[in-house]
């Protein structure tokens, strides 16, 4: 059954109300895309449900009429997982943004899928607690999207990924069933944990509508060190040295070219005058003077070994925030150059050799492109960004990058790594999934997809084809 646009709007309006369906050009453009610029958005309508039951009715309508649905949260994704490029109906969770059912004893809180990450962080702070999953897009990304992509960010080395903080989920499957998964339990050995399939599932099995999120005690006196490092191998030595004496909450790295882009904006000062090829950013809890003394002793030991050329330690929350901006402002800063992004990971011990092989290929094949490296080195996650020259057309740029991506992913496969560490698969990484997943795994993934979404209405064309 095929619906005309007028009939589609009428049917959707009957579910959510006429004021919660949009087909104007601005809305279609805004809600039909994420941060990627590879695919043009072409949705047929945008619908804004307010309840799980309304989402269920939308999914049932999709099955009845052969509609395709694309979930939309903060639209900060980097793999085109929330792009509606083929006439899909976009389901926006903006109005499902309530926080409720806080439990101080269990340290849990119930969130609608549209709750913004920063909103949850601030709510936790008001309760004297802490939500530790954090990244540069926290001010706009939404919890439903974070769960659907298993978002990581800057504190994975200490706190893990989003999946480590999800106590329970409410989802609407591709069949239109409402499932309430895990019931917020810490221990629940009653068969398959279906919750984990939806975490990182990118909305291809069903849509997350609510989640119970776990909270943590707040860290005390977070202190930041930024260190100038002469070569990449030294970064690993620095990390090993500091981890021997402190429990780090973050360990990030970025190249001198990445720093130069951030400093050129003139919003934050350079950390120090000594030029370095790489920089490491460390964060730890300085609960006592002893922790600060340990940090300084470790810093001096690294200087003596020649692993560190210079460094600075934060003396206030404001300075700590400015030092973090040296790392967190990179993505926004380089977005001007339409970067071609690779989000790669290997086990930490393999990082130096892995990065060197990747760098050799990229420098050889892109002599006229600027290469920006940064990442969450503490968990083996590297972000390779290739910047588009202003004079080069976007289509030609992406085509040239795509050719070399094959070689990059062959190296990733050689090191048993992942072609998508934290950004998801979406459409941009789908052609390369076989470099990280065996054919047998992909077959099982397709079978799981069909079990939950037999008519392929839920975010079709993302992650894998069925």
UniProtKB/TrEMBL annotation:
GO terms for biological process: respiratory electron transport chain. Its EC number is 1.1.99.39. One of its GO terms (molecular function) is FAD binding. Its cofactor is FAD. It catalyses: (R)-2-hydroxyglutarate + A = 2-oxoglutarate + AH2. Signal peptide: none annotated. Homodimer. Belongs to the FAD-binding oxidoreductase/transferase type 4 family. PANTHER family: D-2-HYDROXYGLUTARATE DEHYDROGENASE, MITOCHONDRIAL. This is D-2-hydroxyglutarate dehydrogenase. It comes from Parathalassolituus penaei.
């Amino acid at each position: 059954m095929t619906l005309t646009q007028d009939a589609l709007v009428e049917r959707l309006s009957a579910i959510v109300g006429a004021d919660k369906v949009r087909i104007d050009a601005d809305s279609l453009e805004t809600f039909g895309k994420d941060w990627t610029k590879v695919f043009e958005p072409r949705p047929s309508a945008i619908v804004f449900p307010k309840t799980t039951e309304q989402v269920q009715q939308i999914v049932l309508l999709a099955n009845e009429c052969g509609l395709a649905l694309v979930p939309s949260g903060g639209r900060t994704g980097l793999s085109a997982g929330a792009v509606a490029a083929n006439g899909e109906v976009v389901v926006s969770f903006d109005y499902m943004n309530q926080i409720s059912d806080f439990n101080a004893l269990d340290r849990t809180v119930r969130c609608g899928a549209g709750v913004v990450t920063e909103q949850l962080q601030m709510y936790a702070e008001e309760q004297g607690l802490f939500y530790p999953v954090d990244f540069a897009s926290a001010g706009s990304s939404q919890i439903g999207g974070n769960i659907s992509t298993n978002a990581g960010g800057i504190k994975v080395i200490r706190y893990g990924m989003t999946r480590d903080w999800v106590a329970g989920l409410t989802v609407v499957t591709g069949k239109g069933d409402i499932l309430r998964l895990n019931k917020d339990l810490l221990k629940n050995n009653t068969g398959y944990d279906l919750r984990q399939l939806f975490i990182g599932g990118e909305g291809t099995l069903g849509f997350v509508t609510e989640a119970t999120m776990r909270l943590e005690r707040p860290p005390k006196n977070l202190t930041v060190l930024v260190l100038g490092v002469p070569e990449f191998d030294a970064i690993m030595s620095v990390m090993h040295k500091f981890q021997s004496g402190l429990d780090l909450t973050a360990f990030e790295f970025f190249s001198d070219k990445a720093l130069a882009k951030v400093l050129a904006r003139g919003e934050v000062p350079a950390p120090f005058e000594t030029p370095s090829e790489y920089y490491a950013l460390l964060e730890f809890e300085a609960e006592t003077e002893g922790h600060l003394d340990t940090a300084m002793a470790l810093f001096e030991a690294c200087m003596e070994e020649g692993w560190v050329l210079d460094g600075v330690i934060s003396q206030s929350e404001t300075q700590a925030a400015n030092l973090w901006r040296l790392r967190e402002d990179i993505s926004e800063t380089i977005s001007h150059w339409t970067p071609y992004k690779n989000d790669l990971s290997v086990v930490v011990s393999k990082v130096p050799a892995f990065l060197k092989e990747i760098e050799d290929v990229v420098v050889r094949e892109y002599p006229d492109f600027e290469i920006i490296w940064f990442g969450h080195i503490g968990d083996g996650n590297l972000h390779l960004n290739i910047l588009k020259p202003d004079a080069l057309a976007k289509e030609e740029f992406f085509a040239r990058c795509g050719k070399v991506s094959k070689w990059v992913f062959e190296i990733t496969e050689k090191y048993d790594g992942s072609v998508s560490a934290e950004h998801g698969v979406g459409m941009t990484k789908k052609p390369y999934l076989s470099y990280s997943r065996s054919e047998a795994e992909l077959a099982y993934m397709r079978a799981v997809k069909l079990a939950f979404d037999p008519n392929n209405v839920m975010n079709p064309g993302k992650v894998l084809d069925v």
